Amino acid sequence: MIWIPNLQKPWGRKGPALLLLSRFSQAPDPSGALVTGPARSLLAYVTAPGPPSPHALRILARLTCNPACLKAFVRSYGAALLAWLVLGVTSDDWPTLRARPPSLRSQHWELGEMLLQNLTVQAESPFGVGTLTHLLLSGSPEDRVACALTLPFICRKPSLWRRLLLDQGDLQLLLSALTRPAPHPLFLFFAADSLSCLQGLVSPTVSPALPPATPLDPDPPSHCHYEPLLGLDPIPAPDLHFLLDSGLRLPAQRAASSTASPFFRALLAGSFAEAQMDLVPLRGLSPSAAWPILHHLHGCRGCGATLRPIPPPGQPLLGSEAEEALEAAGRFLLPGLEEELEEAVGRIHLGSQGGPESVGEVFRLGRPWLAAHCARWTLGPGQCPRKRALALVGLVEAAGEEAGPLTEALLAVVMGVEEGSKGPSLDS
Question: Is the model's pTM score more than 0.70?
């Protein structure tokens, strides 16, 4: 006589399907039939509102504990899906965030940790190391990218992930894949989490030389040296005026201005005609862009003048007066002012008022320090996984076909390279 289990209790209405999947999962190699598609369905099932089915959990546990399924989990980005549960999100949370009670997020975290730990045990076994090495060395380009993305989630031994991911150059392969056609609809979401996880493995402590994830609160404005020249009876009186294209005349002190940079020293104290003029034209400057320059020429540092040309978050930076001021600071050989303006841009657009949509706008300015700031904001610890993914999407869109600056910035942040050092190269 054949025993037939009760499919309604305790299996419930989904009993026949779960029973069939359970039977398949007990096969020696169920990877081809269960991991690629049904495993994602099981994850969606167990993370739905309400208590998860213990039978579905057992099937997932059985699959993640089977060495024969490791390769299929890696190739199908299954480990990245499990990492979402650890982060407290599911595939339904992208791109629109869904509100979930803390108890449910905690439940998902425990489930994701358990299943990822099962995969970690398989990946760090001799069989798993051989499987991953074969994928990285002999797999198709798509398989190599999937393996490089998955390794930070399932390899916790430093010697192992360094040898498999860093020494063989597969991190560069993953970074280069960001700006190519996505091999998976959720590839950028997975990649953002993977790079953030790897950054935590490589450099658990953030280097102070790199820009922080969230800019510090601004210091109180320092004393302004230029404002007294704008009064009705300035002391000392200005002996020079700069003429803008708009016709606005801005008062200045020749002695202070000529010592601010080699450009103004040659212009105002050299052999040029402007050295004898009381009204010196400054071409290509709007009043808002000229404002921080005049303050800087007269010794102002941190007086708040650099904030004036910067638009609020949500408005484009390309073509703005902020970009104009940065270009002028470089043209007039004022590196200190460039740094102040970049810090102001980062504070306003990557601070508490900014969001992931601001990251791409800041990156479009093409400033190396700000590019590093954008990468740090995106991959920084504690960042919301949805915002991290949206920021990476914005960075990829901003980079366009010029992928080099983006990959270099992300690589430097992941590797914990200090600002100003040569850093790793994608060509090495």
Answer: yes
